[in-house]
Structures are given as structure tokens and as C-alpha cells.
Specification:
Layout (H helix, E strand, L loop, with lengths): L1 H9 L1 H19 L2 H29 L1 H30 L4 H11 L2 E10 L8 E3 L12 E4 L2 E9 L4 E5 L7 E5 L5 E5 L7 E8 L9 E4 L11 E10 L5 E8 L8 E6 L1 H21 L1
Antiparallel strand pairs: 1-2, 1-12, 2-5, 3-4, 3-12, 4-5, 6-7, 6-9, 7-8, 8-11, 9-10, 10-11
Length: 287
């Protein structure tokens, strides 16, 4: 205590100077509009910079997990491509068929990369904001995916930003199929766990097994076929007993979502329009 009193006695003039300086700054910025606005603007700029640095640091420390997920996904895709290549080569005796088909498929779709700048997962109706908009080619009803699978559908678009309606939204309704089985239904999220959803309206005569993969069906103009959604964990009867309800573990981790791609659905829209025109033509002839 004596040392503290000696310190205060020795440097009392400096302590008094600091107190008076703080008091003068408070009075200056609090009772003068111009100085107050300058302080407010500067403080916002500093806090914005700090938030940006903090976000950058957070993204940096999640890169390890992201890279691991990408590595696993790439390994899986390489295995699938090799199996398909071997199958096609055995059937056609032509090792270049798969390469040509893949090039044609990829040429039909333009992917627009974007970053997630806002994301909620704890509500019944969640939304995602991305940093690309109309000026980048984003349009309403475009599909959004990430390295692990389906994310959602573009809901609203401005010049530089877009709102995505993700799978974790009660209004989401995505056509899916059980991979390799040919049966399809509609993906819904009912709240609760962010890694679980349901596929409804799967026919009772469908044959499948637990842990089969669920992928996009390609029956709409939003997603091309074959994009992974998740895997089947449980099977239930529907309320009316006329179909199955599948409990699906989603492949996308919405809690760590950072980078996504928006699918330019122009080729799919053209395909759907042609199919609809054909149906209308047949209907007219029947009438």
C-alpha cells in the first residue's frame, strides 16, 4: 500500500494530466456535432476493419477442415469416375467415351463461385446471403451447391448480393432420387437438427437400403441430376400409409459453410421448356 501511495505521489501530475485529457475528449466529442460525427465514422471504420481481420483469421483456422473435406470429396469423385470409366470401357471398348461425355456435361453448366457473408441455422426459416448478384449473372431460382453437395436455391437478387433459400428452410422443396434405384421424392426440413432432413412421397414399391445415397433427380430446372444430398438413415411410413418417408443425413455442413457455387440453369430451363412443349403438343392432339 505504501508503494502505491509513493507511486501516486511521485507521478500525481501525470495522472492529473491524463484524467483531464480524457475528460476534455469526452466533452469535445459528446457536445460538438462535427467532432462527434468524425469520431463515430472513425470508430465504425476501425471496428469494420477489426471485424474483417477477425473473419479472416476465423476462415484461416477453418481451412484445415475445409481442405480435409475437399480431399475426401475429390477422392470419392475420383473413385466414382474410375469405376464408371472401367464400366464404359468394358461395354464400348473405347476409353475416350467417358472423357468426351464429361466434357460435354461440364460445358453445359456455368458455375459462379461466391462466398457466404451471412448464414443462419437456428431458425425454422433460415436464409443465406452471398456476395454475388445480378451483375455477376445470378438470377432467381438458380441452384446453389458447395463441395459437399446441395445448399439451396436463389430466392432474391440485388445488383451485388443474393439471398439463398437453403435446405434448412421450411419452404425448401427439392426433387431427389435414390441413387441407382430410380425412385424419387421431395426433400424437406422440419426444423431441429441441422444435419437431418426428410424425403417424402417415396413409393411403397421402392426397393432400397439404409445408407443409400440420395441425389438430385434433375426433374426440375434448378439442379442437374446426380448432385449429392445425403444418405438414408431411417425409413418411416407416411401419415396416410401410401408412401415412405426417408430420414436423410445431409452431406452439407451448414454450420461451416463458407464457399459455394451458383449453377447457371439456362440449359436446364431450355430442356424443361422443350419437354413441356412436347407434353402440350401431345395434349392438343388428344383433344
Amino acid at each position: 500500500m505504501k508503494n502505491l501511495l509513493d507511486f501516486l505521489a511521485r507521478y500525481n501530475h501525470w495522472l492529473l494530466f491524463i484524467i483531464l485529457e480524457v475528460a476534455s475528449f469526452i466533452l469535445l466529442f459528446q457536445f460538438n456535432n462535427y467532432q462527434g460525427s468524425v469520431w463515430f465514422t472513425s470508430a465504425n471504420a476501425v471496428s469494420g476493419t477489426l471485424f474483417e481481420i477477425s473473419s479472416g483469421i476465423e476462415q484461416y483456422f477453418t481451412l484445415t477442415k475445409v481442405n480435409q473435406e475437399l480431399t475426401q470429396r475429390n477422392l470419392y469423385l475420383e473413385q466414382q469416375v474410375q469405376l464408371l470409366a472401367d464400366s464404359i470401357q468394358r461395354q464400348t471398348k473405347d476409353s475416350t467415351v467417358l472423357q468426351r461425355n464429361l466434357q460435354q456435361t461440364l460445358a453445359n453448366y456455368k458455375l459462379i463461385p461466391a462466398k457466404v457473408i451471412s448464414n443462419t441455422i437456428n431458425r425454422r426459416d433460415n436464409f443465406i446471403t452471398i456476395d454475388k448478384g445480378a451483375k455477376d449473372g445470378i438470377k432467381k431460382d438458380m441452384g446453389v451447391v458447395c463441395g459437399n453437395g446441395v445448399v439451396g436455391i436463389v430466392y432474391l437478387v440485388s445488383a451485388h448480393y443474393a439471398i439463398v433459400l437453403p435446405v434448412l428452410n421450411s419452404q425448401s422443396n427439392i426433387s431427389c432420387t435414390i441413387k441407382g434405384r430410380g425412385y424419387f421424392g421431395y426433400l424437406h426440413w422440419t426444423g431441429g437438427a441441422t444435419n437431418l432432413a426428410y424425403v417424402d412421397d417415396v413409393p411403397r414399391h421402392a426397393h432400397f437400403k439404409l445408407y443409400d445415397q440420395v441425389v438430385t433427380s434433375g426433374y426440375s430446372s434448378v439442379f442437374p441430376p446426380g448432385i449429392i444430398v445425403g444418405k438414408i438413415l431411417h425409413v418411416y411410413n407416411s401419415n396416410d400409409g401410401l408412401s415412405y418417408r426417408l430420414n436423410v443425413k445431409l452431406s452439407t455442413d451448414f454450420g461451416t459453410l463458407r464457399d459455394v457455387c451458383v449453377i447457371d440453369n439456362t440449359p436446364m430451363e431450355e430442356r424443361i421448356q422443350i419437354m413441356q412443349a412436347a407434353k402440350d403438343s401431345i395434349k392438343v392432339r388428344e383433344e
